[in-house]
Amino acid sequence: MIQVSKKTLALFCCFFLLCGLQRAFAQNDDNPGTLIDTVLIHSSDGIFSSTASFTFQLKSSFKYSEKGKASLLVTTEAGKKVRSDSVSVNIASGESKDVEFSVGGLKPGFYKVNFMVDLPHYNDTARKAFGIKPDQISSQYGKPADFESFWHDARLQLDKVAPEYKLTELPDSAKGGHRRVFRVEMKSLDGYLIRGFLTEPISANKNKKFAVLLGLPGYQVALGPMLGNDPDFAIFTLNYRGSGYSRDVINVRREDYIVLNLENKDKYILRGAVMDCVRAVDFIYSRKELKHDNILAAGGSLGGFLAIATSGIDKRINFCSAANPILCDVRNLVNEVDWPFIDMRKYVNTRPGLTMEKVMDNLDYFDTKNFGTDIECPTLVGMGLVDPIAPPNTVYTLYNGIRAPKHLIIFRDLGHEIGKKYSIYEGRWMRDTFALF
Amino acid sequence: MSLLKSFTKTLFFVLILFITFQSKTFADGGFPVRPGRLLISPSVSYFFASSQWDSTGTKKPFPNGGKYTSISATLYAEYGINRKFAVVASLPFVYNQFTENIDPRSTSSSGLTDLETGLRYYLANIDFIYYFSLQATAITPLYSNNAALGYGQEGAEFKPAFSGSGYLGSLHSYFNAADGVRKYFGANGPIQNRFNATYGVSLDDLYMNQVSLTLTGINSWSNDKSFVSGVPETNRNFSFLELSASYGHSFNDEVSLFLTGGQFLTGRNTGVGTAISLAFVYRLDYR
To answer: For residue B8, how many other CB atoms are within 10 A of its CB?
Structure first.
């Protein structure tokens, strides 16, 4: 063992302390300072009834004054420039400066807005979005005349497939938990085997019936059993065809899933996926311990699409919750987002005779907004204002078309996600609807 | 490919079920009653008063070392008929005793008192956080000619209630506020304003343990201003304000226990009461 006297130890400590201080002071000498820029949108949800207004806050810690400009660029969701503004900025060391911008005279819709600061030693761009009178947004594109009959035919086709439900209670599932867990297998459209997981609260009341959450996953997300302490809800998580635990027949690369059989609307992958969700409702109806009038369909992203589509087609859904639903207003969406159209264009290029116009014709049958008008149950929609996959104007088009009781929660600063506020509101509204006080 | 990768990172499944805890708060508030749910709450309470506020609100001891005690056992029940309506009922049994240091030293009476049966209507909510209800109640005396148990008169009450839930810091919280106007019919039948306000917090995420404070009061007016006993509701013209604290423990989703202690703060023509009570709450779902 090395013996070190207290005196020696103290000397070492002083030495390292002095070295550290010297470095800290040296850093301070070299540091030219920086600028902190913050955007304040003068609306809690980013929605304005007429003129949108913003404060671009600049706070300098530069040693010297910086002279440059602060500017604003407003574009449509499709990237078309609609407004720009610029002001000179002369900001002294340690000074804070608020630059006020207002944008008026815009048509109803959502807009992207970039706030830029350009100084000799600093430049930055803050990206935000805002909406003007979004309740007036509608699509210039209607739904196909045979939209309902297309899905009615799909349903009839599904009815011809015997579901062959198979429940397997998973071993040890009840150990230390509050729920029984079952793996569920069933046959869906075209005879495909799909799987899901049902979890039910363990209750001393053998006659108790449970409300049901039908959980619908996002794009290529595998959903296992979902647990929790809720004594009122059974949770059925579905893995639709080609996704998660239902890849027996369709097992493709992630980027290939959304384009699978895109050239034929009767064989397109999402037709089967939507029918898988309807089959899941069939399954719920087959279970005596589940309440058939308390079914919540919920999902986010592609799951949001599926929740809307299933609720539009299948009136047995009693409450719909769709967060960041994709594929809304596809003919406008195609000009606003990269995905999934980047993969669709690649697909088109590999299929002789297939055109994007034909693809769009097919996608009309899978446009979320076209399902929305058929929904009859209370529907909650959530969206992020800077969502690059489900842009707000397209989600709002869906929302405005829903004629059932509805509520929209906007997250001004979020992208393809929603906040806790959504889940809390969802739970409260759904429980009130189901009278689960 | 990079686009898809970054995109799939943000794909998610939405699911945070909001478990409602309001049903684990005690009964008789503005929150709606679940259809098919029967809530039964047997309770016992002990009331004690050795001094009184006179008709001017002046506090003084009962003469001759007098002491009032009242032990009551009450069976309270609610049943949700549908999402809008619930029936409520309350059946109390009371044993009242007065002791003093002169003969006859002790007098007592006991029996069923006023049966209350009512209908509660779920009026509205604000953002599914704040709930409003209206309740109409009929009061039916189950005794006659026994002033020590009550007025012996039928009555009716109309009571709006307001309840809500929220947070106190990181703790779940709730409140109930109700104000009922009650009228007893017949000679000198008092008209009363009965109010209560409760604020409670859960000590854990699942409302397994909760504490609450309640302010309760009755203002009763009648031409009969006599003092019958230190037990407030035997008098016709009186008032009091009581502060009580309660601890509740839920053994599971069906059974809870509430222990409450209260002290009268101010009053008029009534005893300076101290009360403790123990209540079980059973929630049984029939749908």
So the answer is: 16
**Domain containing residue A228:** 147-433
Q: Which of residues 202-261 of B touch A (CB under 8 A)?
A: 206, 253-254
Q: How much is the average pLDDT of B243-250?
A: 94
Distance, CA of B79 to CA of B77 (rounded, Å)? 7
Pairing of strands A290-300, A233-239: unpaired
Overall number of domains in chain A: 2
Report the CATH number at residue A98.
2.60.40.10
- In this predicted structure, the answer to whether residue A10 has a pLDDT above a threshold of 70 is no
Is A308 found in the same domain as A210? yes
Whether residue A3 lies inside any domain: the answer is no
Domain that holds residue B20: 2-285
For residue A320, give the nearest of A362, A371, A272, A367 by alpha carbon.
A371
Tokens of A1: 């063992």
- Residue-by-residue DSSP string for A361-420: HHHGGG-HHHHHTT--S-EEEEEETT-SSS-HHHHHHHHHH--SSEEEEEETT-SS---H
Q: What is the pLDDT of residue B286?
A: 85
Contact B17 A213 (CB under 8 A): yes
Asked if residue A325 is part of any domain, the answer here is yes
Q: Before B61, cis peptide (omega within 30)?
A: no
Closest chain A C-alpha to B194 CA, distance in angstroms: 26
Percent of chain A with pLDDT over 90: 78
Which residue of A lies nearest to B130 if distances are taken between CA atoms?
A: A428
Helices first, then strands: H and E counts in chain B: 1, 16
For residue A238, give Cα distances in angstroms to A4, A194, A245, A375. Answer: 66, 8, 9, 21
User: Which CATH number characterizes residue B191's domain?
Assistant: 2.40.128.130
**pLDDT score of A22:** 45
Spatial contact of A241 and A271, defined as CB atoms under 8 Å apart: no
| Contact across the interface for B14 and A303, Cβ inside 8 Å | yes
Does the beta carbon of B124 lie under 8 angstroms from any beta carbon of chain A? Answer: no
Q: ipTM value of the model?
A: 0.83
